[in-house]
Amino acid sequence: MAVWTIAAEEGTCGAEHAAALARAADVPLLDPPALVAYAHEVDSEVGELEELEERFGGRLNLAALGLAMTSGAAEAFRELRLRQELPELGRAVVAEAARRPCVIFASAAFGALQEHPAAIHVRLRAPLEWRIESYRRRAVVDRACAEKAVKHDDHVKRAWVKSLYRVDIDDPGAFSLVLDVSRFSPDRVVETMLAAAGVRKAEVGA
Fold it and tell me: Model pTM?
């Protein structure tokens, strides 16, 4: 049983690669909205993943302090409780998802499933300038806006993963496979991820 987790740098078309891998492997794709739906079954107060990443990615202590001063202690308590409970909630959600073959597209999933015996942890990366240009073309923005967005996303995801699971998303040793997508075609990227799990595209559905 293969379970892939994909942590992609901004500008590497991670969502597209994850979707293509899921189709090629004939398994479900669990992207952030799907994972949040799982989480809401456990805790209905959990927000959207992007919003959580922004709050949790390095600024939650300041946010909680601000809430304590402006909204009262009860609101601050809920924010701090979320900080304490979110790592275990994340592990529970991802572990439930990983009970069957699937592709999990979420930046912190590799940290939550470090001990999973069948998990293939994939990091999709590319040189910064390549990613900026990729983002600029796809988002139809100027280079300055693209650079700001890419660097901001890098910072948020790095802090988010570190805060949740005390692991470094930039450490290649944390992954089974690290792919520079600027060097390969999308088809080759998918084929390589399949091969990392001992699956060939021709075998899918056999």
Answer: 0.80
